[in-house]
Amino acid sequence: MVETRQTAADICSLTSPSELNWLELSALSGTSGVAGVDEVGRGALFGPVVAAAVLLPDHAWPELMAAKIKDSKKLSSSRRTQLAQQICALAIDWKIGFASTAEIDRLNILQATLLAMKRAVLKLKVQPALCLIDGNQSIKDLLLPQQTIVKGDERSLNIASASIVAKVWRDELVLRLASKYPMYDLTRNKGYGSQKHLLALQKYGPSPLHRKSFRPCQI
Predict the structure, then answer these.
(1) Rounded CA gap, 186 and 209, in Å?
(2) How many independent structural domains does the chain possess?
(3) Which residue segment(s) compose the domain that 100 sits in?
(4) What tens digit of pLDDT does each residue of 174-184 get?
């Protein structure tokens, strides 16, 4: 049996106009070796900020579009987990980088986020020709071509994939830590500032893994 792989032109001919909003099928058509980079946990009160870098082959795009890939925040937990497994199986390479709570408190959350992104990219064994960075801040001292994309997880298949992989990895980490700090209801809030989490901070104070530079943790 001869395996056939769809080119960007083939994909474009089969997709609806709305699906062509994906940069890989329009502005980046014909560009190979593109890595998407995104972070999760920037607004959390507990735990590290986590980034993923995902490098997809062209032939993964139709499969991921058929799977209705989208921004990780718009997916259920079970669907994110399924997609993360699919993305990692299809990817040429993918890696996780993170910045600890101590680094967040020392550097500030923006710089820690960019550091996590840089670490994810530098771990890649396959060097990308271009890094698509979610947001409007480029990664300092990254000696690779990069392009910032505002709302990139809605516009780039590679960034959306990175968003999903990072979210699943971070959620699994927080769930493992939840048993050590049961009073904060981390199983439900994943480290974000839910009402129960905020009340627990007032009652018990912050744990060693809370972000002391964040106002709700300054108790």
Answers:
(1) 12
(2) 1
(3) 23-179
(4) 999 999 999 99
